[in-house]
Amino acid sequence: MTQEPRNDAFVAFEHVQKSYDGVTLVVKDLNLSIGKGEFLTMLGPSGSGKTTCLMMLAGFETATHGEIKLDGVNINQVPPHKRGIGMVFQNYALFPHMTVGENLAFPLEVRGMGKDEREAKIKRALDMVQMGAYANRRPAQLSGGQQQRIALARALVFDPKLVLMDEPLGALDKQLREHMQFEIKHLHESLGITVVYVTHDQGEALTMSDRVAVFNDGRIQQLAPPADLYERPENSFVAQFIGENNKLMGTIEELTGDKALVRLTTGELIDATAVNAKEKGHRTLVSIRPERVEFKPEMMPPGAHTIEAEVVEIIYMGDILRAVLKVAGSDDFVMKMRNTLGQTKLSPGQKIKVGWHPQDARALDP
Amino acid sequence: MAEATNELLTTADGRPLKAALQAAQARAKRRAFLLVLPLLLFVLLTFLIPIGLMLKRSFEHDGFASSAPALVAWFEANPDFNPADPPEEAYAALVQDLARMQTDKTTGIAGTRINYSVPGTISLFKKGAREAGDLTPPFKESLVAVDADWAKPALWRGMASASNVYTAEFYKVASDFKLNDDGWARGEDNERIYLYLFFKTFLISAIITFLCLLLAFPVAHLLATLPMAKSSLLMIFVLLPFWTSLLVRTTSWIALLQEQGIVNDLLVGIGLIGDDGRLSMMYNMTGTIVAMTHVLLPFMILPLYSVMRVIPPSYARAARSLGATSWTTFRRVYLPQTLPGIAAGSLLVFILAVGYYITPALVGGADGQLISNLIAFHMSKSNWSLAAAIAGMLLASILLLYWLYDRLIGIDRLKFG
Amino acid sequence: MKKTLILTTALVSFGFAANADVTVMSWGGAYGAAQNEVHVQPWATATGNTAVMVDSDNPAAPVKAMVEAGNVTVDVASLEYADVIRLCDEGILEPIDASILAPGADGTPALEDFLPGSVVECGVSTDVWANVYAYDTTKFPEGPTTAADFFDLEKFPGKRGLKRGAKAVLEFALMADGVPAAEVYATLGTPEGVDRAFAKLDTIKSEVVWWEAGAQPPQLLADGEVAMTTAYNGRLFAAITAEGKPFQIVWDGQIYENEMYVVPKGAPNKDLAMDFIKFATTTEALRAQAELISYGPPRKSALKEDILFKGSEFSMAPHSPTSNLDNALSSDFEFWVDHDAELNERFNAWLAQ
Ligand SMILES: Nc1ncnc2c1ncn2[C@@H]1O[C@H](COP(=O)(O)OP(=O)(O)O)[C@@H](O)[C@H]1O
Ligand SMILES: [Mg+2]
What we know:
The complex is a heterotrimer.
Chain A: E1 11-18, E2 27-34, E3 39-43, H1 50-58, E4 65-70, E5 73-74, E6 85-88, H2 100-109, H3 115-128, H4 144-156, E7 162-166, H5 174-191, E8 194-199, H6 202-208, E9 211-216, E10 219-224, H7 226-231, H8 236-241, E11 246-256, E12 259-264, E13 269-274, E14 283-288, E15 307-316, E16 320-327, E17 330-338, E18 351-354, E19 361-364
Parallel strand pairs in A: 3-8, 3-9, 6-7, 7-8, 13-19
Antiparallel strand pairs in A: 1-2, 1-4, 4-5, 9-10, 11-12, 11-14, 12-13, 14-19, 15-16, 15-18, 16-17
Helix pairs in contact in A: 2-3, 2-4, 3-4
Chain B: H1 17-57, H2 69-77, H3 88-104, H4 107-115, H5 121-132, H6 139-146, H7 153-162, H8 169-174, E1 177-180, E2 183-186, H9 194-225, H10 228-243, H11 246-257, H12 262-269, H13 285-309, H14 313-321, H15 326-355, H16 358-363, H17 371-380, H18 384-408
Antiparallel strand pairs in B: 1-2
Chain C: H1 2-18, E1 22-26, H2 29-47, E2 51-55, H3 60-69, E3 76-80, H4 81-89, H5 110-113, E4 119-120, E5 123-136, H6 147-150, E6 160-163, H7 169-176, H8 184-188, H9 191-202, E7 208-211, H10 216-223, E8 228-232, H11 233-241, E9 247-262, H12 270-280, H13 283-292, H14 300-303, E10 329-330, H15 333-352
Parallel strand pairs in C: 1-2, 1-3, 6-7, 6-8, 9-10
Antiparallel strand pairs in C: 3-9, 4-5, 5-8, 5-9
The complex binds adenosine-5'-diphosphate (ADP) and magnesium ion.
């Protein structure tokens, strides 16, 4: 799935390809427009080409083919130090032989900024990340989270219009990571900068971004706001990659508009919405989110097909209950139930019938 | 800062915590010590003791003291005698000792000892010892009749000084001092050589170190940034010199750089210089510097490489993204981080260069004598004490340098590999 | 069965070799090889003892070190004359009883047969080698013939090779300056004499290529780096005969020296060592060595007939120091033990100027 370049795009990749070795394409025909002030995340498994895209944008790698534009201008030939793009690295890349203050002064000094102005800016940037008291420390004397903040401050101190972050929170523990996600998002909103963010953590992508570009195998699989990505995955890769997901294999039995009747390999019939399974008789993979699976007949639309299921295990998770079911030959089908007062108690071995709204079952490419 | 409380911390069974901890650690320490013991002994036996013994020779020599007991006793009793005119008793003691040397066959040892500060003494002693048995009093006249040199004040000063087993004489000689009739004084201009050679050795070593750094830096950088397969290949080329004999390498440089050598032939061939204008690049300082820079280059490349290899490329990228040109990035971000490698490599190359002597001897021509060559010369002439004194001074100046270095850069920051 | 026998014999003899009855230390190269071929191995065969040859750059230093450390592993060593005298005086070497030496092949008693100075208290000479100079005949068809010619840059332009060191160089300079051989050391013993030698050297200083190792001068001459150079006569001989180089030796002003077998004090097998020396210094053994390398045998009886190179028709006379003794100087060991350090300091200071 690609997107045609928009005229008002702040950053634009146009038919960009990249190969390191002349044999394989690491980035295959990338088209991507990023609006001014947008927070765009590149999400994908390791090796899918995210960093490569970021490096091409920063100027450390050259595109093998295609154009990269910043503010409407082709920057393919502009050296990195003239692009004015702030960057945060996964290992922070704080200069170990300089103090925090010197690290922050560096981008200002190379721009020939006077001392007073420099100090004011450094102070503001450090205050912005609540590190005002640490200007004289060396990076090695800071904790990981503190180094992360300094790296952020350094990338922002010279007021870049665009900031790139390559898995900046990858080395932090979960709690700190969530806190930093919030701060970065907050900074993005208050400063009005454009952010291109790379991560392989879907939770991070969904909570922070305006739009997410899901990468796999050098291509954007889907580019959409987080909610669309989760609720309306356009192919089976996205469906599986984002969130938890039940998969049922089958063939399309009937197709009316986008309503599809699918016969599973074990013979049962289920209702689904055709997304990219367009012809009768085609094989398809039906994807259903665990929280959209129902077992109480009153919750299902009238006339909906149901299938037999056997409870294998109930896992208590506090706010929800997870039921692992044996359905249509697979025994890792998951159903999530809210842990409410009147919730029906299921027990292992119990036989039930499960079903769903047809729009929650998406028939995708196999 | 939480101060240790006055109250003593104890373990559950009431023992003081500190004592319990020490007891627990003592065993581990003993085992660790046993593990390093063989290494410690090895270093002691093969390194510290030989160096210690060598240094001892530089201030201890009993060659004369042990073979001339009568004269030693007389010198002890008359510390303030006049070397210009020693009394008859002194000559009597000397003749007695000479006769004894002749029977004990110690003339050579005693004469050699005096010869270190008073040239010409060995044959004097031999002649004197041969005649000593037949001399009659007054011994002063009869001995001077054998050879007038026996009355030389410098000789008496030398013998008085050598009657003490411990002496600073060798250090004086190694600092260009000469013993003459009036005592120790700086040698004539055309005799002074040691301090000059010390200075020259350090200067050449510094130049070589600098050239090595200049050449090694880009090579090490390439090694550190090239993909593994290519960098391994390049590393083989870097290490190749280690696998070739030093003489072969030196000889190749001679074949390349001498006046009828390949480089000159090439320059003449392409008409850059005339056949009578061939460049002198061998048998002079240039030859020494070129050949030694080549020989020592790996010792600079390896520490640099080991430092550069672990500098992540993201630092340079970060600097570039922050707006620095590639030159600023190099100067302000990359170079400072390679300092430990530069420091270690320079120290290594410098110290090795100071001690090298085969290469300068073969390719250095008139400039080819460095201080180590003189150490080797005196070793081969069995003047080990003087060799030890020069080596001791060399060691002291290197230690001094090391100390300075530690103050300026910090030894703990060095990275050798 | 036979195979096993051969194998065990090989192993046993190997074991012996590492722990031989007599260990001889010499200078390696062609010289050491010749002594091994005509002295060490024949002695082992003749007496049924085992003997090995080990190499050293200059055996004097290890011999002194071994004796001082009380751990002597060498029974016989080949030393330079001056080192023999010096180490003998220091008590490092065993005295050798001259009466054990074999009479000449013609029956002359040993002490009359040996050339003067070639048998001393602690050493017996095996050969005489010389410092000479040589030039390339293709460069100078009408070549130099005297020591003075070496210093004549007008008649014979070109670079000169000289050994970097005082010994032999200063004597050579004085002889070239017209000092008769007999007076060289008396002259060099005075400050004026030393100045005179350096003044003579000053006349060619700018044209000199200084060499260090014995292998260098023939190479310098062959490469055309120098027009003429001093060298050890044996090295020149090797270059002329083995490599066919067009070099001509000039014997005028040669400075010759004895090379001697000695026994270090505390040698593990002193008696066998003495027997070896007796064996290796007979007229035949000395001639045999002189057939392989161009160092002259120090016995008159060995010089009676011309020596032919390795049994060929090639006469060794033009290459043997003892056959070219006109205006030759016998290196004075006593002078050099007295003055080596002093004159070398002066020499190095002069070089550095
Ligand atoms: N400098 C490089 N040289 C060669 N191949 C590279 C280089 N950098 C990345 N690659 C390859 O390109 C592909 C994409 O890498 P990358 O962009 O780092 O992926 P991601 O950041 O999504 O994990 C991977 O297969 C990786 O091996
Ligand atoms: Mg990456």
